[in-house]
Q: What sequence folds into this?
């Protein structure tokens, strides 16, 4: 079955420190902090996953109703897409993740995404146009 | 080096081609006006040779590197050739890319990258840089050595140094560095956060200073190396710090594209004995400005012994303070730079310092953090 799969955008650089993801969008200089259960989602996005797969993995990891987790994941993916942090593509569903019992689960914290755009001025004043191999500049974001 | 550029064909390496053409123009400029003598530097543990064509660029742009001058023969690790059109009569090569329309008030930058070469071409009166990073060579051009924008003079040949140093494992980091006895703190944060004022406050208090705004960081040894010996200050900060007129650049306070007017301050004139080539980084400090109106309240509440409130911050908070402006300004190698900075914030503690209106109190707060280093 074909479904939307998500992965981290090509212009995004990121690191996870102290359980918080710091992601920088090289295309426009905006940067982000992702905390709560967000880093768990982000880790999965590095592999290219579907919304359902993310929900299933998180349900196995956190103590919360599946519906609550599914709603939080849907909201976060929408935010990440809206900000250009992730891209989607059609793909075939992978094997469903293994079912987990309740052992080892930790309390669920909703993902928290914060956006900072104080670097934007650098881009507005000195917009960078990448030039392709044939000499055509790609307009700055 | 100096090879004649090949024909422009689809799929050609335009960046390498433009580098070769620009280097050729430098050779012409140098032949036309005569060399001004190379400036041999030791920077970040590397031998760096600056080759200006004519004397104007050396005087107008390269003076802030004189404190890193070194003697001795031997091949340099890095070589940067420089020329301007006004004093040599030699134009840079025509762009190999389609022109970019500039919106009012903007300076669009064309960026070409290939595996071998990088070109950064800004519009207007600003610099043009082409580099072969792995080979350790770059060429810099500016239209008029007698009319170099303050932004360029504040961080001379920044792009060329950033590209060449990155290929040698030195990360140009948007940070100041101050300390004592070879150990110290990185002052991090975006432009306008108070780094320069704090760094100069520390220098005036007798602490060692490596930089106010940019350092070359060796991630493994956590060593912060000096680049230029100038700092950039607003008039308000210069007054607050009591900077003597003799240490302020003759161009005075000039408007910046964003924010208040700033002038260049020559640290060699301001506090010559405190200027150092390098420091080992033991802590990160994020200065934060606060409204003056609240400063006395903070003192009354005992926030910091002398009015500067110091608070421990998480590694993630430290990374948010140092990484975005470093990476956004560098423009190349974002992922590797972020990884190196993440490693830095994991290895050393971080503090935020809410700045007091009293520069001496702020310097004392940083000095206490330095004294606490192992």
A:
């Amino acid at each position: 079955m074909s479904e939307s799969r998500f992965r981290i955008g090509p212009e995004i650089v990121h690191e996870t420190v102290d359980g918080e993801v710091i992601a920088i969008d090289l295309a426009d200089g905006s940067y982000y902090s992702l905390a709560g259960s967000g880093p768990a989602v982000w880790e999965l996005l590095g592999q290219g996953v579907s919304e359902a797969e993310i929900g299933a993995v998180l349900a196995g990891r956190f103590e919360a109703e599946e519906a609550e987790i599914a709603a939080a994941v849907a909201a976060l993916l929408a935010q990440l897409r809206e900000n250009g942090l992730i891209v989607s593509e059609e793909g075939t569903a992978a094997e469903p993740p293994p079912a987990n019992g309740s052992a080892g689960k930790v309390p669920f914290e909703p993902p928290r995404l914060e956006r900072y755009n104080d670097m934007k001025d650098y881009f507005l004043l000195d917009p960078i146009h990448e030039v392709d191999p044939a000499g055509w500049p790609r307009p700055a974001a | 080096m100096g090879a004649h550029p090949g024909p422009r064909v689809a799929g050609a390496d335009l960046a390498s081609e433009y580098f070769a053409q620009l280097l050729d123009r430098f050779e012409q400029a140098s032949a036309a006006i005569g060399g001004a003598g190379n400036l041999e530097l030791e920077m970040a543990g590397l031998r760096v040779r600056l080759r200006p064509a004519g004397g104007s660029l050396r005087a107008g742009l390269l003076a802030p590197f004189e404190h890193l001058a070194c003697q001795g023969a031997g091949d340099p690790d890095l070589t940067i050739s420089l020329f301007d059109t006004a004093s040599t009569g030699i134009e840079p090569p025509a762009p190999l890319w389609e022109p970019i329309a500039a919106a009012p008030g903007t300076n669009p930058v064309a960026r070409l990258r290939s595996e071998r070469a990088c070109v950064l071409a800004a519009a207007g009166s600003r610099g043009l840089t082409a580099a072969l990073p792995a080979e350790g060579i770059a060429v810099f051009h500016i239209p008029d050595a007698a009319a170099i924008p303050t932004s360029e003079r504040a961080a001379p040949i920044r792009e060329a140094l950033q590209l060449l140093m990155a290929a040698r494992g030195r990360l140009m980091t948007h940070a100041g560095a101050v300390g004592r006895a070879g150990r110290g703190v990185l002052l991090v944060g975006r432009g306008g956060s108070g780094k320069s004022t704090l760094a100069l406050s520390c220098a005036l208090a007798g602490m060692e200073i490596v930089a106010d705004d940019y350092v070359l960081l060796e991630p493994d040894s956590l060593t912060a190396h000096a680049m230029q010996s100038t700092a950039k200050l607003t008039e308000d900060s210069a007054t607050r710090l009591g900077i003597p007129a003799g240490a302020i650049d003759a161009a005075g306070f000039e408007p910046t594209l964003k924010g208040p007017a700033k002038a260049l301050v020559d640290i060699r004139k301001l506090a010559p004995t405190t200027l150092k080539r390098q420091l080992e980084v033991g802590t990160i400090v994020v200065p934060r400005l606060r409204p003056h109106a609240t400063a006395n309240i903070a003192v009354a509440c005992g926030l910091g012994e002398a009015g500067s409130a110091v608070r421990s911050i998480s590694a993630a908070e430290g990374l948010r303070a140092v990484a975005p402006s470093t990476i956004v300004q560098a423009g190349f190698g974002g992922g590797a730079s972020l990884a190196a900075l993440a490693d830095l914030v994991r290895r050393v503690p971080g503090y935020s310092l809410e700045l007091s209106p009293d520069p001496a109190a702020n310097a004392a707060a940083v000095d206490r953090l330095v004294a606490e280093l192992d």
